Amino acid sequence: MAGYFAIFLVLLTLACGLLWLLDALVLAPKRKLALASAQAVTALPEDAQQDILKEPAVIETAKSIFPLVAGIMILRSFLYEPFQIPTGSMIPTLLVGDFILVEKFSYDVKDPVWRKTLWHNNLPERGDVAVFKYPLDPRLDYIKRVIGLPGDRIIYREKQLYIEQACQNGQTSGCGVLEPLPQAFQAEAEYFMGTMPQRRYIEQLGDVSHNILTTPMRPEMLRDYYRQPNTAIDEFIVPQGHYFVMGDNRDNSQDSRHWGFVPADNMVGKAVFIWMSFEFSEDPNSWLPRWVPVGVRFGRLGRIR
Predict the structure, then answer these.
(1) CA-CA distance, 262 to 241, in Å (whole number)?
(2) Per-residue confidence of the chain (305 residues) as pLDDT tens digits?
(3) Is 88 helix (H, G, I), strand (E, B) or coil?
């Protein structure tokens, strides 16, 4: 839906701008010429002159909304775009009902229609919470955490993440060694998915410290994993120009373990801020529809880690 709205916004801005230009170059001069011709015959009162010079309603509307729609298009296409979190795959970092801002210029800046790169900027980094076009259906926007960079070797085995970082730009330390990511236990059964209790850990991913959830009773669905040639079933080697992403809710996330890698061209931007967070009723007997918020979680507003 976000892609369709972007196209609609571009078309609306273009239509308003063209109508404004048409009026300035063609219609307005014609109205002035008509006024001059009428005044050559007889003197016209002020109200009659204004009637001749009056802009058509469609032109007046286009000129009045053009600055607004053009500003919105520039803001959400190249600077910041709002997104809503619809699923629990990023719990506890992001909850259902969180509204976030995505910084579009954190990565390569792309045009909003064909998504061709207009300006090369920074590359995604390990630990970024990134929004991207779902590789299997680019009409959909997904949000996950960047785990692996091009050339990295990733293993996810028995709820533990291992990374062998690829050496970059002459790097000689901290790479080429398969190491488990440090995890510090925080709480038991803080969140529930169905009837299975979960555990919360703080995971250290490079310089980024963030929360994750695991579901100890839930077995790994290895048969559903993405199969990469010449690797173990739970092993992934990130191709050049691609990224490996995972949800922080590790056992309740469809991510790179299941459908593969995210091409760099699919990256939309970095999630940086929660600007609103609504709480919804979880009572199955509530008379309110599930999509109606019952409160605002003010404590969640702020930067995303």
Answers:
(1) 9
(2) 566 788 888 999 999 999 999 999 999 999 999 888 888 888 888 888 888 889 999 999 999 999 999 999 999 888 999 999 989 999 999 999 999 999 999 999 888 888 888 888 899 999 999 999 999 999 899 999 999 999 999 999 999 999 999 887 766 666 778 899 999 999 886 665 566 788 999 999 988 999 999 998 888 889 999 999 999 999 999 999 999 999 999 999 999 999 999 999 999 999 999 999 998 776 666 666 666 777 899 999 999 98
(3) coil
How would you label 228-246 residue by residue, b for 16+ Cβ within 10 Å and e otherwise? eeeeeeebbbbeeebbbbb
Sheet with 160-164, edge to edge strand ranges: 178-180, 160-164, 153-157, 235-237
Alpha-carbon dihedral angle through residues 227, 228, 234, 237, given to the nearest 10 degrees: -150
Distance CA 64, CA 161 (A): 54
Distance CA 28, CA 22 (A): 9
DSSP H helices, the chain, are 2-22, 28-41, 46-53, 57-74, 256-259
Q: What is the pTM of this model?
A: 0.84
Copy the structure tokens of residue 224.
């559903």
Report the b/e string of 7-22 with b at 16+ CB within 10 A. Answer: eebbebbeebeebbee
Provide the annotated active-site residues: 89, 144
